[in-house]
Amino acid sequence: MPKTAPHPHAQARWALAAVATGAFCVQLDSFALNLALPAIRDGLHGPATAAAWTVSGYLLAAGSLMPVAGRLGDLYGRRRMPALGLALFGTAATLCALAPSLPLLVAARLLQGAGGALIMPAGPALLTNACPPGHGRRAIGRALGLAGPATVCGPFLGGALAQSVS
Q1: CA–CA separation, 17 vs 80, rounded Å?
Q2: Distance between CA atoms of residues 24 and 146, nearest Å
Q3: What angle do CA 106, 112, 115 make, to 5 degrees?
Q4: How big, in percent rounded to 5, are the helix, strand and coil portions of the chain?
Q5: By the 8 A CB rule, do 131 and 12 touch?
Q6: CA distance 104 to 54
Q7: Under 8 Å CB-to-CB from 124, ≥6 apart: which residues?
Q8: In contact, 33 and 44? CB cutoff 8 Å
Q9: Which residues contact residue 70 at a Cβ distance below 8 angstroms, ignoring those fewer than 6 apart?
Q10: Torsional sign, CA 109, 97, 78, 130
Q11: 76 C-beta neighbours (distance < 10 Å), count
Q12: How many whole angstroms separate alpha carbon 91 and alpha carbon 30?
């Protein structure tokens, strides 16, 4: 039986869900640790200045690598880069959770920022290509709008997890 191509609207919905989920994770991680820094510092027995690098290192890696990641997406594929970024992001998140010391946590956060950088720039391009003509901008707005609550939820979730789980 011949394999049929997916319906364009179904493909656009999957792309929208993938881009929104990736952007949500990147945004959540950008803001989740601020309230948890004292607990991180106490739990990993590090100085306050080093604990701040768990946030700053992530943002620095993500922000500085996004232009490169955008170009890599152009060169190697708009689907491949977000998938690679998600794999790197998830692996780094596991390393963050298992980090026995503050320097290893900061290193894992740098990797996580690099994964986030691979996720973000290719998303709008992926949506533009997956959506029917004339619908790409609206889909980008929806994806980023769905990711927006992570900015608000991040500090609350980070603080709650630091208090309850450690």
Answers
A1: 16
A2: 7
A3: 150
A4: 85, 0, 15
A5: yes
A6: 10
A7: 19, 136, 140, 143
A8: no
A9: 121, 122
A10: negative
A11: 12
A12: 17
- pTM value is 0.82
**Of 153, 15, 44, whose CA–CA distance to 102 is shortest?**
44
Task: Give the confidence band of 127 by pLDDT, cuts at 50, 70, 90.
Answer: confident
The single residue listed with the structure tokens 């959540």 is: 28
Could you read off the pLDDT of 19-56 as tens digits, one per residue?
888 888 888 888 888 888 888 888 888 887 888 898 89
Q: How far apart are CA 65 and CA 153, in angstroms?
A: 25
CB contact set of 22 (below 8 Å; sequence gap of 6+): 82, 85, 86, 119, 120, 123
Distances, alpha carbon 117 to alpha carbons 1, 23, 50, 68, 105, in Å = 40, 10, 22, 9, 18
Q: Which residue has the tokens 């790197």?
A: 88
